[in-house]
Amino acid sequence: MKYVLVTGGVVSGLGKGVTASSIGVLLKACGLRVTSIKIDPYLNTDAGTMSPFEHGEVFVLDDGGEVDLDLGNYERFLDTTLTRDNNITTGKIYQVVPHITDAIQEWIERVAMVPVDGKEGPADVCVIELGGTIGDIESMPFIEALGQFSYRVGPGNFCLIHVSLVPVLNVVGEQKTKPTQHSVRGLRGLGLTPNILACRSTKALDENVKAKLAQFCHVPAENIVTLHDVPNIWHIPLLLRDQKAHEAILKGLNLLGVAREPDLKEWTARTRICDKLHDSVRIAMVGKYTGLSDAYLSVLKALLHASVACRRKLIVDWVAAGDLEDATAKEAPDVHKAAWDLLKGADGVLVPGGFGDRGVQGKILAAKYARENKVPFLGICLGMQIAVIEFARSVLNLHDANSTEFDPDTKNPCVIFMPEGSKTHMGGTMRLGSRRTYFKVADCKSAKLYGSVSFVDERHRHRYEVNPDMVSQLENAGLSFVGRDETDRRMEIVELPTHPYFVGVQFHPEFKSRPGKPSATFLGLIAAACGSLAMVIQSNGHVGKTHSNGISNGHSTAKIHQNGNVFRSSNGSNGSVNGVYSNGNGNGNGVHW
């Protein structure tokens, strides 16, 4: 087994996750099998109970692992299926054994041997990302363990790539190397020596700057690569290839005679396609955490995959759910009007998952607007429950219909707690991970978008479900619960047959959306918003000439790539970096591609 370690210096938010994922893409293009490990040096055992405002979204794996969002990047870039053990945290390690550094090394070696690409036998290379920044006190046990590990596995089996910042001072326009010099010095002082420097900057490094870095960081100039700002993050593997980063990595791992030249023809074609998108599709994202787009990162990626499949440039209008409510109309009428203007100007409406009752009424109003005005709508997890509650209130005239999560004493509980865990203990108690959904209605939009399969496996993260005792009443009024679990008691997919596209799913389809395989439900939303749903359904979830391989695990195989996208917010919060993301990704801090 060969190991590539990616560390970061100077500041956080440089894009270590994208760099690690891109390195994986490059090595995979060289014919190598790649697995990934993310080390998060926080005391929590997992990301399940962390606030989305602090840590971004919680990414859910097939085995129910609640992990860092970077594992979502790994899965999307490399099209792999990781496990909870691919995310190491301080909390997990300290639960195991007092000999902390030994435990970390043993964990890495054990997980690296587990195949994640559906093939037998271990991967050729394991890419390890160390979260945080060199010098963080919480990272020290992991840095010590990795220093010991690099010595133990020996030269030719370990390659360290250090991602650092080379800022440009606007006053003089000069690229400054001192921050990277100090970062590398700190890294060396901790027992780790970088083989490659990956330098983030606004533009390509000047040759004299590379020479200076080589001299003071003791890294060959040919091993110093620039990760400068690009139109979209799909350029990053191409940047690495063009600077022959693969040769430096393969040389350091003694794999030059084993690997082939990287084949990135398809990747290059995708990048060019997404750069040229002009016609837009506008989606209103009605949520609770609209101030930080990373809270909905996988949802954004799934929208991107689907929008590019439909050859549209995605525009996301961030609508804070609370801004739609009557209380806001009284307190801040301008904010209320701006939110409704965004909602009414959208081609489609998406209500993502969430917890707690803040903004619920605004989400109900959004679902009502989409239903009554025939605007394409997709509700995910809580979003599906919201759609059911709104239908019960408006169509069945059950004005106090609600979820017992928000009103335990409601007389018309449309959504109830259905235990796979405890009501009182947070974390690890939810219905988590991959579960099977069976289509009960073959002639429905969702089934056709999934390729007319009889069942699909999707990932879940929730505690509450549609009340099975109210299903017949709801269906008699026009709703159709077209997808259910094997017991027929858990409602997984709901549709409104008389609506152009009004779909709710209890699961989280965004977690399995891939650049080449957009989520069926997201594809349906975007296609409906573009006016092309009938064509997509007629072709069993395919779009245009780019779909040639049918359906794989419930997802259409469009050739898709994400592009630079515009994100607007209704409440004045900056839902983007300087208004426009060059990569459709807003971490809210640091420097972004």
Automatic annotation (TrEMBL):
GO annotation, biological process = 'de novo' CTP biosynthetic process; pyrimidine nucleobase biosynthetic process
Top-level class of the enzyme under EC nomenclature:
ligase
Write down the EC number: 6.3.4.2
Q: Is the keyword ATP-binding in the record?
A: yes
| Reactions it catalyzes | UTP + L-glutamine + ATP + H2O = CTP + L-glutamate + ADP + phosphate + 2 H(+)
Keywords, ordered alphabetically: ATP-binding, Glutamine amidotransferase, Ligase, Nucleotide-binding, Pyrimidine biosynthesis
Q: Which Pfam families match?
A: CTP_synth_N, GATase
Name all CTP synthase N-terminal domain ranges: 2-255
Question: Does the entry feature the keyword Transmembrane helix, yes or no?
Answer: no
For molecular function, the Gene Ontology terms on record are: ATP binding; CTP synthase activity; identical protein binding
Q: Which pathway, per its entry? A: Pyrimidine metabolism; CTP biosynthesis via de novo pathway; CTP from UDP: step 2/2
Tell me where in this chain the Glutamine amidotransferase domain is found.
293-526
Stated role: Catalyzes the ATP-dependent amination of UTP to CTP with either L-glutamine or ammonia as the source of nitrogen.
The entry's family comment says: Belongs to the CTP synthase family.
Q: Which PANTHER family did the record assign?
A: CTP SYNTHASE, CTP SYNTHASE-RELATED
Protein name as it appears in the record = CTP synthase
